[in-house]
């Protein structure tokens, strides 16, 4: 069927330059009349040939996202719950008043990049390879402080152009803690409560900021709970949200230093990622083996996890790099 429809499409779209003979015109009209009904029946098939900004390619798989957050993300009960509710609520809103803005914070290797990938995988059929998913990294896209004004203009143009192409675009800003202060403020109008700006509506877009900034505040709270003999699962968002936003706002190396995005409350959720314990690193190693098509081996996973550096120095509670180096270590053991 696919080949048949393509041939019909080529017949309709093909033509010759110059004068058209009357008999050719009659034949063409007859063919068009005969094929119009057939093409109308198959019009939606064309949307499956290449990615386009339609529900066939962009739709939230809530069940899939919930399953991935539960089974593939370890030690992040706050982030899992918050991400699922925030993304689901936003995607189910037919007329959002503003884009969804998530700011993910925590120590390296705790799952921030992984979560952004899970979100993309469960919204876009092409996942991170989708032409509607855009990733910006500070050191690659904005390396020179002397060109900050140029970067601001480019960033505005990139976002405006991509949202004009598809309203349901996803923008991921990695390494926010390395971004030049003031750069992110250049896109403030696109994150605000505007129906349209120069004819473009940004309300259906999603912006995700990833940063190590605020990690110290999160670790401090986690240690306080541990020292008090309380389970990490007792830590709630309210225990972290205020100190996290203040820490990020007042940190010159956060990318959000004195930014209007925070001052004007345009960040919908500050999502904390807790430091990972030994048991979580073991889970990462087990998942890594499964991803390679291997039978997970608990003893190997424990051996891999045991080689990482943990802190504080004497208690050795949290992995200093989370699960970041697990894959490379599995190369050695498997």
Structure description:
The chain has 334 residues and is α/β, with parallel strands linked by helices. Helices cover 45% and strands 10% of the residues. It is built from 14 helices and 7 strands. The strands form 2 sheets. A 5-stranded parallel beta sheet has the order 2-3-4-1-5, sandwiched between helices. Strand 3 (170-174), helix 8 (188-191) and strand 4 (206-211) form a beta-alpha-beta unit. Helix 3 (62-71) runs antiparallel to helix 4 and helix 12 (278-291) crosses helix 13. The two termini are 46 Å apart. Residues 5-25 have low confidence and may be disordered.
Map the helices and strands.
Elements: H1 2-13, H2 22-41, H3 62-71, H4 77-92, E1 100-106, H5 112-121, E2 133-137, H6 138-141, H7 148-165, E3 170-174, H8 188-191, E4 206-211, H9 215-227, H10 241-249, H11 260-263, E5 269-273, H12 278-291, H13 298-306, E6 310-311, E7 318-319, H14 326-333
Parallel strand pairs: 1-4, 1-5, 2-3, 3-4
Antiparallel strand pairs: 6-7
Helix pairs in contact: 3-4, 12-13
